[in-house]
Amino acid sequence: MLIVLGLFVALASVFGGFVLSGGSLGPLYQPTELLMIGGAAIGAFIAANNGKAIRATLGAISTFRRSTGYDKSFYMDLLAMMFTLLGKARRESLLAVERDIDNPRESPIFSQHPKLLDDPLVLNFIVDYLRLLISLSVQAHELDELMQHEIEEYEHEAHLPADALYKISDGLPAFGIVAAVLGVVKALSAVNVGPDMMGLMIAHALVGTFLGIYLAYGVVAPLASRIERQTGESTKMLHCLRVSLLAHVQGIPPQLAVEFARKTLHSSERPTAEELESYVRGGSGQSGLAPA
Asked: Do the Cβ atoms of 143 and 38 come closer than 8 Å?
């Protein structure tokens, strides 16, 4: 919603200000200029990227929708679930959670948190590493290195769409100049037109420069920046899970493991210890997070 709102405000401000200053929107309607600029940008995008980057860019909208939900309520849900899982593993051994991770949708623990079940990034990270801990005897530093490596790889892959869009935004002003130059060439080659028509043709040509700059900094660059922000949100969530799992491997009690994870969150999404304890007590019926 914020993406749409921001793009609309930029559009309304630019064109609304132009109209209020006495300008007419008619001369700005130049579909051929838009075809040249947009077509050149799309062609450059295809030529500059492989299939993986193209698919990632086209599918970036799913990242917008998912990671925008990583708010305070989401983290309370996530930390409560990790407290329950790690508590069960500590009381009954890791083998006790094997059935939960083998079929999360049938698990009484996971089924209490439908929002987390619908997020494959969260679910796969938890399930994969709990399964690894059940199958192998892994030292804390080995587990930490593996998780760090996976998060770095995820971050690198998630940045592909932003990188591709930033490069397109860098090229759009130049494509706008190309369209404008071609328009000027067309105008100057029309020797049999009067001054009024010549001025109109040059004005139409200059629309290309405007469109190239506006599309670059008013549309494409903001989308690329938004993808970067959303990638940061997802990465922060993975580090939160990493800290809780690492603390469990080091023998730290679940209530403290969850507290360590809570400390990794930004202040805007971080629940207080009292809020989280109240949520866990109300949602699971277990003892609170205060150490015994």
From this structure: no
Kindly state the average pLDDT of the residues 129-144: 89
Nearest Cα neighbor of 177 from 14, 12, 2, 36 is 36
Among the listed residues 247, 250, 255, the one whose alpha carbon sits nearest the alpha carbon of residue 273:
255
How much is the pLDDT for 286? Answer: 47
For residues 13-39, average pLDDT: 90
pTM to 2 decimals? 0.82
pLDDT tens, 190-227? 767 777 788 888 888 889 999 999 999 999 999 999 98
Distance between CA atoms of 209 and 183, rounded to whole angstroms?
Answer: 10
Does residue 93 or residue 77 have the better pLDDT? 77
Amino acid (1-letter code) at residue 140: A
Q: Which of 91, 92, 94 is nearest to 131 (CA)?
A: 94
Please name the residue ranges forming H helices in the chain.
2-20, 31-48, 51-58, 60-67, 72-92, 98-102, 114-117, 120-135, 140-158, 160-189, 195-215, 221-249, 254-263, 273-284
**Mean pLDDT, rounded, for 26-33:** 88
What span, in angstroms and rounded, lies between the C-alpha atoms of 46 and 40? 10
Residue 94 DSSP one-character state: G
Evaluated on CA atoms 18, 24, 27, 28, the torsion sign reads: positive
- Residue ranges per structural domain of the chain: 66-158+235-281
Q: d(Cα 47, Cα 277) in Å, to the nearest integer?
A: 53
Residues 6+ apart with CB under 8 A from 272: none
Going from the C-alpha of 69 to that of each of 66, 72, 77, the distances in angstroms are 6, 9, 12
